[in-house]
Design a protein that fits this description.
5 helices; alpha/beta; YbaK protein; 162 residues; 5-stranded mixed beta sheet; globular
């Protein structure tokens, strides 16, 4: 599974945005990976501390949720929490079209031209810092978990499958 190069922006735009927002972070370069679990292995960060961004679609709107790499999103819990009965996982084609600056499977949970981060799973809050995707398959970003929630005005809740 190979992704085309981003049309523009990508990792450098995310890093610039983090600097503009005064969000402390560390760049973690790694070998090319295509899943959050693989990124965790490549960076030697536990999967429980590695955040995967899930892109969702609700009609014409997009939203995002963040959960540990080792967990699966419970879409029903998320729908109930947000009161959005039509919310579903976005397809790879929809993600590629909506986020041309990012590689599919590497959409970060924050940044320019990124929809609101709606929910952060409560399991991530047990860590002071989490690893997030940097917009491509070769860079992770380690940042304060509380800052991730605050900067996005996200809700913290249990959104993983039981």
């Amino acid at each position: 599974m190979s992704s085309p190069a981003p049309a523009g922006g990508g990792f450098s735009a995310i890093e610039d945005w983090l600097h503009q927002q005064h969000i402390d972070h560390a760049v973690i370069p790694h070998d090319e990976t295509f899943t959050a679990r693989a990124e965790a292995r490549a960076t030697a960060i536990p999967q429980e501390q590695t955040a995967k961004t899930v892109v969702l679609r609700d009609g014409d709107d997009f939203a995002m949720a963040v959960l540990p790499a080792c967990e699966r999103l419970d879409v029903h819990k998320l729908r109930d929490l947000l009161g959005r009965n039509e919310m579903r996982l976005a397809s790879e084609a929809e993600i590629a079209q909506r986020f041309p600056a990012f590689e599919v499977g590497a959409v970060p949970p924050f940044g320019p031209d990124v929809p609101s981060l709606e929910v952060v799973d409560q399991r991530l809050m047990t860590f002071n810092r989490v690893l997030c995707s940097g917009g491509d398959h070769r860079h992770g970003l380690m940042l304060d978990t509380g800052e991730l929630v605050r900067s996005a005005h996200a809700t913290v809740a249990d959104i993983c499958e039981d």
